[in-house]
Specification:
This protein is of the alpha+beta class. It folds into two domains: 154 residues, Periplasmic binding protein-like II (D-Maltodextrin-Binding Protein, domain 2, 3-Layer(aba) Sandwich); 204 residues, D-Maltodextrin-Binding Protein, domain 2 (3-Layer(aba) Sandwich). The strands form three sheets. Strands 1, 4, 9 and 10 form a four-stranded mixed beta sheet that branches. Strands 6-7-5-8 form a four-stranded mixed beta sheet.
Length: 375
């Protein structure tokens, strides 16, 4: 799409630099602190974007994007607003859920994904008894581990507790403690692939590679997961190839006694913020990549569109299930490592990894996050 935009606007040069998530955060933070603000950079909204706004590093796009923002999902746009103003433009939206290998489930005699936490633990044991690694996780990157910890907070505490934490910055509450206990309960079953504590997300020996090679039965991840599985498996989508195994999707299960509903979602969107000194063509490029035609192309290949006219291009049954999860969400909690400031997000990820390693108690993890959050 960058090439197509440049072809139409030959006076524009677009230099794309690609980073893995954590490397991007580090490189971006270094650049911003040095006053070297990129014209365009990846954003997930939340506390990090608010910090950039308060530091005067990004443009207010409320007026410059008004001509096309109305074509985009209001829910997706809201993730990139600060005090009612638009400071980044989304191009992708989704919720985290379970991606699972239907063949491996069938081999273990499991008919359908779990709908409760107790059923999930039973499925883990059933898969282990069948000689199948139940879950792939890239705890070395930390944020995939935070998906488990955070989603359990949402399921146990519900919207009221998550909103309370956002106001007080106090994580030392019963729902968060119990979420840590549930993580420990899962870890005690030893459900993960060998080396999971050092594994990354998107690597041949990481979470996506383990799933791609059918070395684990399920994976808790966002809507980008199928694309990563195909890439790790060497699937040529341009030639109409698909994975050699059948993929399924299911929402995160309910926790018995929890205040969170099955329709409460944990997820977010991918977007781009515009540097304070970027030229007008930068916003024009955002309009280009979010127009209906390009969003349909995006939907057919790798994700869920934010342009409401492009939703009809989503044909994959699993992506339609994710889209239904977005549309039916009664509450949407943005990824905690993005919802809060970069410092708080980092300690959430650190404590998630330590919980997976069994090196902290649930109480210690909650207390450590609270100290950094200032609660």
């Amino acid at each position: 799409m960058a090439d197509a935009f440049v072809a139409e606007n030959p006076h524009v040069t677009i230099d794309i630099q690609v980073y893995e998530n954590e490397a991007l955060k580090a490189a971006l933070q270094t650049a911003l602190q040095a006053g070297e603000v990129p014209d365009l950079f990846q954003s997930w909204g939340g506390g990090g974007l608010r910090d950039q706004v308060e530091a005067g590093l990004v443009q207010d796009l409320t007026e410059s994007a008004a001509g096309f923002a109305g074509d985009l999902s209001p829910g997706a746009l809201s993730l990139f607003q600060v005090d009612g103003a638009q400071y980044a433009i989304p191009y992708n939206i989704g919720v985290v859920g379970f991606w699972y290998n239907k063949g491996l489930f069938a081999d273990a005699g499991i008919d359908a994904p779990a709908t409760t936490w107790a059923e999930l633990l039973e499925d883990v044991q059933t898969l282990k008894d069948a000689g199948i690694t139940p879950i792939a996780v890239g705890a070395g990157d930390k944020w995939p581990a935070h998906f488990w910890y955070s989603y359990l907070m949402v399921r146990i505490g519900g919207a009221d507790v998550m909103n309370q934490i956002a106001e007080t910055n106090d994580f030392s509450v019963p729902a968060v403690i119990e979420a840590g206990e549930k993580v420990a309960e899962l870890v005690a079953l030893e459900p993960f692939q060998p080396g999971f504590l050092a594994a990354g997300w998107d690597a041949p020996d990481g979470e996506s590679g383990t799933m791609a090679l059918e070395q684990a039965a399920m994976d808790l991840m966002g809507q980008w997961a199928p694309g990563a599985f195909r890439a790790q498996a060497g699937v040529d989508t341009t030639a109409g190839e698909e994975l050699a195994w059948e993929l399924g999707w299911a929402p995160f299960p309910a926790v018995e006694g929890g205040a969170g509903a099955l329709t409460d979602a944990f997820g977010g969107g991918d977007g781009f913020a515009v540097g304070i000194d970027a030229p007008p063509e930068t916003v024009e490029f955002l309009e280009f990549i979010t127009n209906a035609e390009n969003q349909r192309t995006f939907a057919r290949n790798t994700g869920l569109p934010v342009n409401v006219e492009a939703v009809d291009a989503v044909e994959d049954p699993n992506m339609l299930a994710v889209l239904e999860g977005v549309n039916n969400a009664t509450f949407m909690q943005l990824y905690l490592d993005q919802f809060f400031t970069l410092e708080v997000g980092a300690v959430v990820n650190d404590q998630s990894q330590l919980l997976f390693a069994g090196e902290v108690t649930p109480e210690e993890a909650a207390a450590a996050i609270t100290v950094v959050a200032g609660g």
